[in-house]
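does this look right to u?? guanosine-5'-monophosphate version
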Amino acid sequence: GLPPYDTQNVFARILRGEIPSKRVHEDEFAFAFHDINPLTPVHVLVIPKGEYVSAADFHATASDAEIAGFWRAVAKVAKDLGLDATGHRLLSNMGVDGGQEVPHFHVHLFGGRRLGRMVA
Ligand code: 5GP
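got this back:
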């Protein structure tokens, strides 16, 4: 199963301002910032403010308001970055098989160029 939430994970520390980040959006439910190692011209991470290990944890235990607020923030960030006209990609790695490195649920937003076909 999933590990318990680690309050010292890097995204928890970013949320607390203990580690700097390049913020692109913040509201009641979500925080968005540029990935430190961008894989595409635009590579933003969107995270909920609550303590959720993974996508499964988030969707099973967050309130409907948190879930709606989070996904609305994802959509707003993509729109505000100008990625709706040209398209973009959303991705969330989960757990060991998913290659998740940071145990705070996050969605990658990739864009800014024509992306390759998705490969697993
Ligand atoms: P995961 O594999 O967990 O889905 O992706 C974690 C992402 O977090 C990676 O793309 C990695 O570059 C990014 N990341 C890790 N540490 C930091 C950090 O301290 N600051 C920022 N902005 N991104 C980070």
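The first helix runs from residue 10 to 15. idk if thats expected tbh
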